[in-house]
Amino acid sequence: MATTSPISSPARSGHRQRLRKPWATTKRPAAFYSTLLGRPIGHEEPGTAILAAPQGSIYTVFQQAKGYLPPGWPSVDGQQRMMHADFHVGDLTTAVADAVALGATVADFQPQDHVRVLLDPAGRPFCLCLDDEA
Fold it and tell me: pLDDT tens for residues 30-68?
């Protein structure tokens, strides 16, 4: 059964990406991104959850990390460094509303008009970017 999502993350031809994220727990972030991206949880075991990848292109692995502290946004020298994911959307307003309904919060600092920075339930920033081609 196919699921739909306002978020699209097309893989570039020939590229395989792996994204590993440490979390205090794996259930809540995995469920959040599973619903946000429309990808089922393909594998789950204590301390680890993996989202199923469309056409084998992108693996998103969530692993439990003791002592996890979310990074600050925007970055400040001396704080934990971060990486974040960008997701392209056709309707920025709807995508933000959908993400907030799933438990995300809109960050106070918004550096661009066509991008919204949100914090997932674990406090990690991610961006929803307006896709001009959508």
Answer: 889 888 888 889 899 988 888 887 776 677 888 888 887
- Is residue 9 a part of any domain in this protein? no
Closest residue by Cα to residue 55 from 36, 34, 39: 39
74 cis-preceded (ω within 30 degrees of 0): yes
| Range(s) of the domain holding residue 56 | 14-68
Instruction: Please give the helix or strand (H or E) that residue 33 lies within, else none.
Output: helix 27-37
The position carrying tokens 């997932």 is 120
**CATH classification of the domain holding 18:** 3.30.720.120
- Judged by phi (left if over 0) then psi (alpha if -120 to 50, else beta), residue 20 lies in beta
Q: Please work out, in degrees rounded to the nearest 5, the angle formed at the alpha carbon of residue 41 by the alpha carbons of 30 and 123.
A: 10
